[in-house]
Amino acid sequence: MTALETRVATTTADTLRLATAGSVDDGKSTLVGRLLHDSKSVLADQLESVTRHGTPDLALLTDGLRAEREQGITIDVAYRYFATPRRRFILADTPGHVQYTRNMVTGASTAELTVILVDARNGVVEQTRRHAAIAALLRVPHVVLAVNKMDLVGYAESVFAAIAEEFTAYATELGVPEVTAIPISALEGDNVVEPSAHMDWYGGPTVLEHLETVPVAHDLAHCQARLPVQYVIRPQSAEHPDYRGYAGQIAAGAFRVGESVTVLPSGRATRIAGIDLLGRSVDVAWTPQSVTLLLEDDIDISRGDLIVPSKDAPPTTQDIEATVCHVADEPLRVGHRVLLKHGTRTVKAIVKDIPSRLTLDDLSPHPHPGQLAANDIGRVKIRTAEPLPVDSYADSRRTGSFLLIDPADGTTLTAGMVGASCTAPEPVRNETTDDGWDL
Amino acid sequence: MTVLTPSPSGLTHSACALSHLDALESEAVHIFREVAGEFENPVILFSGGKDSIVMLHLALKAFTPAPVPFALLHVDTGHNFPEVLDFRDRTVEQHGLRLHVASVQDYIDRGVLKERPDGTRNPLQTLPLTEKIQAERFDAVFGGGRRDEEKARAKERVFSLRDEFSQWDPRRQRPELWNLYNGRHAPGEHVRVFPLSNWTELDVWQYIAREGIELPSIYFAHEREVFRRGGMWLTAGEWGGPKDGETVEKRLVRYRTVGDMSCTGAVDSDADTVEKVIAEIAASRLTERGATRADDKLSEAAMEDRKREGYF
After folding, report:
1. CB A43 to CB B2 under 8 A?
2. Count of CB contacts below 8 A, A vs B?
3. Per the domain annotation, does A291 fall within a domain?
4. What pLDDT does A72 receive?
5. What is the mean pLDDT of residues B32-50?
6. Pair A290, A386 in one domain
7. Is A238 in a helix, a strand, or coil?
8. Are A381 and A277 part of one and the same domain?
């Protein structure tokens, strides 16, 4: 690990991808607008464009489509960019209503942190529980509970403490690994960027301080390396007559020159002869670097194959059990013939069974719903036409996830997360159903 | 400005993360390779502007030591900066690329398109672009659009499906999860692909500095004859300026964006190196489009409307 550790000393974590969940009523757009504004990421012409009667409406900064401005709601995921001297942020601003669950799932799929807003006057409501459930399902590593509108409850510590306690207990039960609760007023700016002058009783970080310091480094030691092959680079030129490189973005872990690797699904083994990092030769490379691997033996490898360390090869299977979020308008039914995209491989598949649909409030199961409609989250069993090397989503978000696609018109139907259970590693509820799976 | 911060748990847990430029570069390369793996006939929209130059640089790195497996497409408004056209031709020559040109002037000469009263040709680019995509059967079209540019662009996907009229329907976009891009499309449809989606203007310039990428000279401070129109400095020239009542003066300026001469404004600047440009942008209180693009000032939803019709 010496070479790797040397590189670690010179590379650092400086981008955080986060998602916000909450409706306009919770002040989500105001919070995002406040973060952008107070971190000086909103420029004069943007501020002028949302100023009405002399006061900027920060919520308008994030609602980009005509329909959103007309209806005063967020419909689609919007991406925002801001930076502080300590870190750079990519923020997926997602709508909160139940009919936009698919957009929340989309935003959470790449997020390392989710900010869930609640209105201090209302506390934890159905929508809050839904947001927590989605963060748990998508395995977002860090969750921030922003208790907003503290100014409207007299900045009372007891109000905040009760909400924070209720939410943390609930989220922990769902399997959320870490919750940070922060009392704020997005409208007044309390504890968003600057510490509040009204809440001496709160000694924790502001929202921005927390975003700047939460650890985002990938823990390579506990990740098995995975490289989905995207493209075979063969110049066949006078200068490079025999070059044959396997290009891809490392989905998990690290690869080293000399390491024994296996190519799946064929199972053929060889060693890494070299690693090209966009034109530069390196000894070691790690996720999420885009690299080109050169192998010692000339074996048949093409797009869709997965290169893994021989000692950590996942099993291949044609039967996949997963938790899915249905994102298309047309429902998903048992017997549906689909395409399944996993990594860089797309194969034919059939939906064998939909054992349950989950109530988003608490992820409790409703057995045998027959179909999943738009925004439904449920459990499915899928049979694929070819064996796939899938990981559990709990182990690897990149190689444990897949899409179901309509073969007729290419619509993205369903987002899937491989695994026998959908949330906490241990059963946390007693209401286990006859289907033989637990929560 | 982003600076590096030490990762407290880094060494003990063998953890590491990429610098933000490395992460953006890796993501863009992944997108280029996905398109190369899944599409038959992709093309890179290349205007000679900084974003398209960075796109081409990333594509070159993605497939090295093999050549870029895509052609270039330029929509020539007929009002392009000569420095930029010269740069375009040298770039094509240097990398042995194939260049397609869709000409707005051709459409005007044939009477298919009419010159607008305000003289701006930016909105006229959509038809030649769409018809070239159809005629050449391009199935993936890389654009340099960035989500930070404009609020309608902030809602854009990395892979954005267009119908046979190149139309964008923001309410029917495919959800885009993890890094699993869905490029399936019917015959006649194509996919617009935006590898720089997550880059900001500052990222682009920091990357240009880090990689030592050459740009057309108009991006750096130079003396130019300009006149004031609509709150912007437009370059004087045959394209239609100045009109009566507009006076030409010589100023030290540079361009933050490069588009059609009729609607791209210069900014007062003495930034004559990449480093000075980065310092200038970091301190700027205006967005690049707000400062330099007349076409976005037409209405609050000007970009959304043009994108729906098939614009870049």
Report:
1. no
2. 235
3. yes
4. 57
5. 96
6. no
7. coil
8. no
Judgement on whether residues A76 and A204 belong to the same structural domain of the protein: yes
Burial B152-179 (b: 16+ CB within 10 A, else e): bbbbbbbbbbbeeebebebeebbbbbbb
Q: Do B17 and A303 touch (CB under 8 A)?
A: no
Identify the domain containing residue A270 by its residue range: 221-312
Query: Among A213, A240, A262, where does a domain finish?
Result: A213
Q: Across the interface, do B36 and A66 touch by the CB < 8 Å criterion?
A: no
Helix (H) or strand (E) holding B202: helix B201-211
| Residue-level pLDDT at B213 | 96
The pLDDT-based confidence of A416 (bands split at 50, 70, 90) is very high
A217-226, A389-398, B37-46, B66-75: range with lowest mean pLDDT: A217-226
What is the ipTM score, two decimals? Answer: 0.88
Write out the CATH class of domain B20-202+304-309.
alpha beta
> What is the pLDDT at residue B294?
54
Q: Which of A57, A105, A230 to mutate to test the interface with B (most CBs of B within 10 A)?
A: A230
User: Residues 6 or more apart from B205 whose CB is under 8 A from it?
Assistant: B50, B274, B277, B278, B281
What does the DSSP assignment read for A280-321? EEESEEETT-EEEEEESS-----TT-EEEEGGGPPPPEEEEE
Q: Which residue has the higher pLDDT, A152 or A59?
A: A152
A24 and A155 both lie in a single domain: yes
Give dist(CA A223, CA B161) in Å, integer: 34
Question: CA quadruple A317, A322, A114, A105: dihedral positive or negative?
Answer: positive
**How many domains does one find in chain A?**
3
Alpha helices for A375-428 (secondary structure H)? none
- pTM of the model as a whole: 0.88
